[in-house]
Design goal:
The complex is a heterodimer of chains A (113) and B (112).
Chain A: E1 4-7, E2 10-14, E3 19-25, E4 30-38, E5 44-51, E6 56-59, E7 62-67, E8 72-77, E9 86-94, E10 102-103, E11 107-112
Parallel strand pairs in A: 2-11
Antiparallel strand pairs in A: 1-3, 3-8, 4-5, 4-9, 6-7, 7-8, 9-10, 9-11
Chain B: E1 5-7, E2 10-13, E3 19-24, E4 31-37, E5 43-50, E6 65-69, E7 75-79, E8 88-95, E9 102-103, E10 107-111
Parallel strand pairs in B: 2-10
Antiparallel strand pairs in B: 1-3, 3-7, 4-5, 4-8, 6-7, 8-9, 8-10
The chains are: A mainly beta (113), B mainly beta (112).
């Protein structure tokens, strides 16, 4: 059974700092991996989707990498801002991708002005 | 275009009552998923619809939970005889085949 782990569970950084969020998964036979952002009391916003054949995806200040063989992904946030404060969730899609995602428990990020 | 919508946004019900939660997926999306997010827990899969295929119900926690999807579009998640442990945020997502899943804002269910 696939298990997804995110470390750390919570992180507090000063504004402007670069940071890395970690995600690991136990079964490397994934189809894709998604990073989401969740604001308190809100739904999930998809940030980046990496297909299993890809190594990384970038969007603005965000860069997600995938090392499928070692079962790891990282989300790099450059020049963090208070507006980046949220919970970040990692989720893997298995098989053909037409399957429910398996989520980690998230990393709660606070960026202090 | 419009995203995934869910209603109600909040629902408070008494233990033992039945509740219905609604999800309107993005138009044209063939796949629809229900997840549950309990306090302190990650998101857990409940049920999945893909086109006209039989739904994958493997994540439903008990037979008090059921869901249907009418006309390949709107879905309703029904919880019968609600229990306090059913209190959670229920999230719906849709996708066009094996692509990015788009989530709705969720329904926060509180069972008193």
């Amino acid at each position: 059974k696939q298990e997804v782990t995110q470390i750390p569970a919570a992180l507090s950084v000063p504004e402007g700092e670069n940071l890395v969020l970690n995600c690991s998964f136990t079964d490397s036979a994934i189809y894709n991996l998604q990073w989401f952002r969740q604001d308190p009391g809100k739904g999930l916003t998809s940030l980046l989707l990496i297909q299993s054949s890809q190594r990384e995806q970038t969007s603005g200040r965000l860069n997600a990498s995938l090392d499928k063989s070692s079962g790891r992904s990282t989300l790099y946030i450059a020049a963090s801002q208070p507006g980046d404060s949220a919970t970040y969730l990692c989720a893997v899609g298995e098989n053909s991708g037409n399957t429910p995602l398996v989520f980690g428990k998230g990393t709660r990020l606070s960026v202090i002005a | 275009g419009a995203g995934v919508s869910q209603s109600p946004s909040n629902k408070v019900t008494e233990k033992g009552k039945d509740v219905e939660l609604r999800c309107d997926p993005i138009s044209g999306h063939t796949a629809l998923y229900w997840y549950r997010q309990s306090l302190g827990q990650g998101l857990e899969f409940l049920i999945y619809f893909q086109g006209n295929s039989a739904p994958d119900k493997s994540g439903l926690p008990s037979d008090r939970f059921s869901a249907e999807r009418t006309g390949g579009s709107v879905s309703t998640l029904t919880i019968q005889r609600t229990q306090q442990e059913d209190s959670a945020v229920y999230l719906c997502a849709s996708s066009l085949g094996p692509r990015k899943q788009y989530f709705g804002p969720g329904t926060r269910l509180t069972v008193t």
